[in-house]
Amino acid sequence: MGDWSLLSRILEQVHQHSTAVGKVWLTVLFVFRMLVLGAAAESAWGDEQSGFSCNTRQPGCETVCYDRAFPVSHVRLWVLQVVFVSTPSLVFVAHALRSVRRQQEAPAGGAPGRQGDKAQIRGALLGTYVCCVLARSALELGFLAAQYLLYGIFLSPVYRCERAPCPTPTDCFVSRPTEKNVFVAFMAAVSGVSLLLGLAELCYLGRRRLCPPTPEAQAPSPDAWPHHPQNQDLHVTV
């Protein structure tokens, strides 16, 4: 498995500028995808080709059948999924950093929404964030559909191959199908959770957009408090 350090450092910036639901999505991405892919999934598919055997000695038949059964490795497909699903968030981070830089370069009093180095998700940045969530949800669906079209729901222990140069229909056997199906189900469940988090984040953003919190609703106005100048004078003299 390749080095995830660069992508991890970039996604730390995504975490800094994300909503609360977005932070949960990033946790799912880090823990249940990147760590599982690096620690366990690759070892389960380490013998994918060497453990694939067919009941024939015809030269080239086993290679052709393997290519037919596994046009793309599951692990490589999941790595591509992580990269593509993370890409919209990188676009949002670029926009957020540009917004923060513009706030820092603005004259004093010209950046009412500034809070340190964190950009406020509103205006054009809110539109970018919504597009980011929609794009990554669409990519999740796309990769789930691609996995289903390539392999179906689960791997079968026996694959029947009828491609040339195999002289007759040939039975081929997949190595450790049960273990691999566990990872297939797990990664599909993680994709489903990611889709639900995307839907929850859209609802969260829509609620904040329609019902933004107002400072007046959080604290009473000082003008509404009763004034008792005689009590204040008494307090001062004491």
Automatic annotation (TrEMBL):
<comment type="function">
    <text>One gap junction consists of a cluster of closely packed pairs of transmembrane channels, the connexons, through which materials of low MW diffuse from one cell to a neighboring cell.</text>
</comment>
<dbReference type="InterPro" id="IPR000500">
    <property type="entry name" value="Connexin"/>
</dbReference>
<keyword id="KW-0812">Transmembrane</keyword>
<feature type="region of interest" description="Disordered">
    <location>
        <begin position="215"/>
        <end position="238"/>
    </location>
</feature>
<feature type="transmembrane region" description="Helical">
    <location>
        <begin position="20"/>
        <end position="41"/>
    </location>
</feature>
<dbReference type="InterPro" id="IPR013092">
    <property type="entry name" value="Connexin_N"/>
</dbReference>
<keyword id="KW-0472">Membrane</keyword>
<dbReference type="Pfam" id="PF00029">
    <property type="entry name" value="Connexin"/>
</dbReference>
<keyword id="KW-0303">Gap junction</keyword>
<feature type="transmembrane region" description="Helical">
    <location>
        <begin position="78"/>
        <end position="97"/>
    </location>
</feature>
<protein>
    <recommendedName>
        <fullName>Gap junction protein</fullName>
    </recommendedName>
</protein>
<feature type="transmembrane region" description="Helical">
    <location>
        <begin position="124"/>
        <end position="150"/>
    </location>
</feature>
<dbReference type="InterPro" id="IPR019570">
    <property type="entry name" value="Connexin_CCC"/>
</dbReference>
<dbReference type="GO" id="GO:0005243">
    <property type="term" value="F:gap junction channel activity"/>
</dbReference>
<keyword id="KW-0965">Cell junction</keyword>
<feature type="domain" description="Connexin N-terminal">
    <location>
        <begin position="43"/>
        <end position="76"/>
    </location>
</feature>
<feature type="transmembrane region" description="Helical">
    <location>
        <begin position="183"/>
        <end position="205"/>
    </location>
</feature>
<comment type="similarity">
    <text>Belongs to the connexin family.</text>
</comment>
<dbReference type="GO" id="GO:0005922">
    <property type="term" value="C:connexin complex"/>
</dbReference>
<feature type="domain" description="Connexin cysteine-rich">
    <location>
        <begin position="139"/>
        <end position="205"/>
    </location>
</feature>
<dbReference type="GO" id="GO:0007267">
    <property type="term" value="P:cell-cell signaling"/>
</dbReference>
<keyword id="KW-1003">Cell membrane</keyword>
<keyword id="KW-1133">Transmembrane helix</keyword>
<dbReference type="InterPro" id="IPR038359">
    <property type="entry name" value="Connexin_N_sf"/>
</dbReference>
<comment type="subunit">
    <text>A connexon is composed of a hexamer of connexins.</text>
</comment>
<feature type="compositionally biased region" description="Polar residues">
    <location>
        <begin position="229"/>
        <end position="238"/>
    </location>
</feature>
<dbReference type="InterPro" id="IPR017990">
    <property type="entry name" value="Connexin_CS"/>
</dbReference>
